[in-house]
Amino acid sequence: MKDEELYDLAEFFKVFADSTRIKIISALLERELCVFELAEIVGTTQSAISHQLRILKQSHLVKFRREKTTIYYSLDDDHIKDIFMKGREHIEEISL
Amino acid sequence: MKDEELYDLAEFFKVFADSTRIKIISALLERELCVFELAEIVGTTQSAISHQLRILKQSHLVKFRREKTTIYYSLDDDHIKDIFMKGREHIEEISL
DNA sequence: TTTATATGTGAACAAATATTCATATATAAG
DNA sequence: CTTATATATGAATATTTGTTCACATATAAA
């Protein structure tokens, strides 16, 4: 595998490697949510969420739809859930 | 899911989120390797590899066995390969 | 015990990154 | 056009993190 591909792969995993973003992903596993709701659930500011959503969009982890002034975000891809779950499994197993 | 679990999950993904470590993981998908070999393959110093291997050990991503003065590292868990592969699939799909 | 080889580690520096704050933009309603 | 609401963004700051360098440790052979 080429160095460049491996670099991109590391960049991709960086997106999961932050607790704010992983909380956003976790919340979106349940249902689509707007920025305001995400801020409440995650427990941070609207601005912080918006910054992180930009990263999640750029990495194609979330998609969104607009409804009047509200923008609803949801997970873009089934791989996201798969990877999230595999991570959970690993953590469960090592803590047995 | 609890905040603490989500925090741990983000910590876990941080391990994949660095190009040196992902190169180490990629190399170990093929076969077990010693520190010196890893340094050559990855293209960095023995010290840098050793530092990163410590992180990989702490996260239970690699295991090792000693043979005289040489220490051979290998992947510890099938989840590692699964997660690696899912990441690859995602990247392939978004670049189509 | 001395020497050689392989690996581990602490401190320091540089680079990357998340949040905060203030402000900007976008959409819809009046 | 003005106002209200929801979201986005730029700059600054603080924190985290990876590598380098020098040195320490571990194992085995002489």
What's the CATH first level of chain A? Answer: Mainly Alpha
Give, in order, the helices and strands of chain A: HHEHHEEH
Rounded average pLDDT of chain A: 96
Secondary structure: number of strands of chain A: 3
Structural class of chain A: alpha+beta
Assembly category: homodimer
Beta fraction of chain A: 5-15%
Domain count of chain A: the total is: 1
SS element count, helices of chain A: 5
Protein described:
The structure is a homodimer of 96-residue chains. Chain A is α+β, with helices and mostly antiparallel strands. Chain A has a single domain (3-94), classed as Orthogonal Bundle (Arc Repressor Mutant, subunit A), CATH 1.10.10.10. Helix content of chain A is 65%, strand content 15%. Chain A contains five helices and three strands; from the N terminus they run ααβααββα. The first copy, chain A, has helices at 3-14, 19-30, 35-42, 46-58, 78-94, and strands at 33-34, 62-67, 70-75. In chain A, a hairpin with a 2-residue loop joins β2 (62-67) and β3. In chain A, α3 crosses α4 (46-58). Chain A is globular. Chain A binds chain B through residues 1, 3, 5-14, 16-19, 21-23, 26, 60, 77, 79-80, 82-84, 86-91, 93-94, and chain B through 1, 3, 5-14, 16-19, 21-23, 26, 60, 77, 79-80, 82-84, 86-91, 93-94. Chain A binds a DNA duplex (30 and 30 nucleotides) through α4.
